[in-house]
Design goal:
With about 425 residues, the protein is an alpha/beta fold. The longest helix is centred in the C-terminal third of the chain and has 31 residues. It contains 11 helices and 12 strands. The chain has a 7-stranded mixed beta sheet with strand order 1-7-6-5-4-2-3, with helices on both faces. A 5-stranded antiparallel beta sheet has the order 8-9-12-11-10, covered by helices on one side.
């Protein structure tokens, strides 16, 4: 193989290894492209179905009443994610805010929240009130909500009997976290979500109790052919600076699901009586619309980078998850270093291959909402956008790097090859 990457300092040995890896992952790339094509056509059809027009790219200010473009975008999101309604706003600044708003909007004192996928990630654990750092007076638990959880089975699949055993007359919300967060477990697949939803619905029917199923969909959008509400979930949410924003959205989040639940969440974010009626778009409709249109293609690029990274590290004996030939439920790739210095150096190499701040060397620091120091590489056009190539990890054993995103596959490929050298 001719070493076309030699100008970047890639050795002939690593270039040859990359050539071997590419041959071995051809089938995975083909499957990624098939899913991309399916979802891209699905997105295009949603725009056509809802007659999206140039006027919908316009702007509102102040209260944002009667924003026709915003309403049309929310119809498209509802269609794509399988819900009755959607709330898609630049006023939601993170995935954690979107999911927290779902929980605060639905749960009331005396209700119980059951986490069906174990303890949620650090920032959401503080929202609930189960983190060691949970000193917030308005956490769900301090406001009177009770909490329980069921860990996943050792193979990463949902513990269906365990979930059913925990359901009771106080259970109001069953919460599912699709992605892994800062953990070593695998991301959930559509089949996993379907199994949990079916079991909860069966119990609810037998006990004449309607339980709300909420899904944190961050990092999972457009990785598979179906989204949570299309599988039967009542509500889901995520961030527009992750998969559905395609690196184009500068901020924002979405909530999709049953119309009554979506409106409760909107009232939590704005105010009772105002709900989804307010929220100026300030010209942001263009970025949201273009982002969701480009999302399937961008997700495919990120997945290719993750598969390549997984294969390369496997070939050098490092533990990586998912394996290069595994099915994927999100865009996150983990590499286990068992050494804090190697974790930091890998993140620094990701930063060095970034279009923004490539000359900066990230160091661990105390990041708000996390119990350990975190090292984060993110030379991105949008701050914190994990639709773009980024990598981070908490400074705690076994020192795992969480690599995600990538607007273009070639950037991830170069970063992996340089780190290998």
């Amino acid at each position: 193989m001719s070493n076309k990457y030699s100008q970047y300092g890639i050795s002939d040995e690593v270039a040859a290894l990359a050539g071997e890896a590419m041959k071995d992952i051809e089938a995975q790339f083909k499957e990624i492209e098939e899913i991309r094509e399916y979802n891209q056509l699905r997105v295009l059809e949603a725009f056509r179905k809802h007659a999206f027009a140039e006027r919908h790219l316009g702007s509102t200010t102040g209260y944002g009443y009667d924003d026709d473009g915003r309403e049309r975008i929310e119809e498209i999101f509802a269609d794509l994610f399988g819900g009755e309604a959607a709330y898609v706003r630049m006023q939601i600044s993170s995935g954690t805010q979107a999911i927290s708003a779902i929980l605060y909007g639905i749960l009331r004192p005396g209700d119980e929240l059951l986490a069906a996928t174990g303890r949620p990630y650090d920032t959401l654990a503080q929202t609930i009130g189960v983190s060691e750092e949970s000193d917030y007076d308005a956490s769900l638990i301090k406001m009177g909500t009770t909490y329980d959880e069921v860990n996943l089975l050792p193979d990463g699949t949902p513990d269906i009997p365990g979930i059913v055993a925990k359901l009771n007359e106080k259970t109001k919300v069953v919460f599912i976290q699709k992605s892994r967060g800062y953990s070593t477990r695998r991301a959930l697949m559509a089949d996993d979500l379907t199994a949990i939803i079916a079991a909860v619905r069966k119990w609810s029917s037998e006990h004449k109790q309607r339980i709300i199923i909420a899904v944190d969909n961050c990092y999972g959008e457009f990785v598979e052919r179906q989204e949570p509400c299309a599988l039967g979930a009542d509500i889901c949410g995520g961030s527009l600076i992750k998969n559905p924003g395609a690196g184009i959205c500068m901020t924002g989040g979405y909530v999709v699901g049953r119309k009554d639940l979506v409106e409760k969440v909107a009232q939590r974010i704005t105010a009772p009586g105002l709900g989804s009626h307010v929220g100026p778009t300030l010209g942001f409709n263009r970025f949201i619309a273009q982002g969701i249109f480009r999302a399937p293609a961008t997700v495919a690029e990120a997945l290719k980078g993750a598969v390549f990274a997984s294969k390369m590290f496997e070939m050098k004996g490092l533990k990586s998850s998912p394996a290069s030939n595994e099915k994927r439920g999100d865009i996150v790739q983990t590499i286990e270093f068992n050494d804090p210095d190697k974790l930091v150096k890998f993140c620094q190499m990701i930063q060095a291959c970034s279009p923004v701040d490539s000359f900066v060397a990230p160091e661990p620091y105390a990041m708000p909402g996390y119990s350990d120091q975190v090292v984060m590489a993110a030379g991105t056009f949008v701050q914190g956008a994990t639709s773009e190539l980024s990598c981070d990890g908490p400074i705690r054993a076994p020192y795992i790097a969480y690599m995600q995103g990538g607007l273009v596959y070639e950037q991830a490929k170069l970063a992996v090859m340089l780190s290998m050298d």
